[in-house]
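Entry under discussion copied across for reference:
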Amino acid sequence: MSHSSPQQSAMRKGPFILGTLRDTDVYWMQTIGKTEQIPAGTVIIAEGTPLNTFYIVLLGTLSVSVAAQDHREIARLGIGEVLGEMSFVDARLSAAQVTTLENSLLLSIPHQKLALKLEEDEGFASRFYRAIAMFLSSRLRSAVVQFDSSDSALSDSALESPLNNSPATSA
């Protein structure tokens, strides 16, 4: 019978990303990572900056926003979700700003230590990259649905526009 720490329990409540990992994987992440208490209103990741940390939300709610959308919130993240996965995978600058909406608890894992573990442990690497792929796939599907619903709203308004009554489109 294994006993989970409160951090492991919080991580297991999150989305499927961590469900792909074994208890030993989660334990390694907890051991190598640093638990950080972050006050509400703190910018964890600034858009367009280098990122060298992979985060897992243990408690709290965070807001994701992007400058291209006038800093409008595009997503909310909660327990068990990850931050910094895109920068870890492609080594590019952060694509969005992430801000805590309430006092939060994050597990931060340095990219360098995570990369070394992935290089040394093929089983962990397989499970980790599968979890990241599933997470990114889910995020992309959500974005497509969100885009599709906003696109259909735009299409409806375009159909009502007098500019749309060209001879090619008129009945």
Observations:
- The CA atoms of residues 62 and 100 lie 4 Å apart.
